[in-house]
Amino acid sequence: MLKIFQYGEYIFYLYPNDGDESVHVHVIDKKKSPNSPKFWMTKNGNAILANSRVTFSNYEIEKMIDTISANSDLIIKQWKKYFKDITYYC
């Protein structure tokens, strides 16, 4: 797990073997489960929920999306640092 940042109870991170996919970020909430939702990044810096293996409320998902979008520059910078190449979901 490559931690990018933490915001409140959420930790935003990358998996070291995800570099062959489009840029995305995983989020973990230690209160819920070690499983994490995955969010694709778009070219304009927005986030789209790719999947969620645990049940989060709509409010929690929206909070994650807002936080990812607000920190998209940092996420993309870290993606490039670890994986060099970058493609976007859309």
Automatic annotation (TrEMBL):
Pfam families: DUF4160 (PF13711). InterPro entries: DUF4160. This is DUF4160 domain-containing protein. It comes from Lactobacillus crispatus. The lineage of its organism: Bacteria, Bacillati, Bacillota, Bacilli, Lactobacillales.
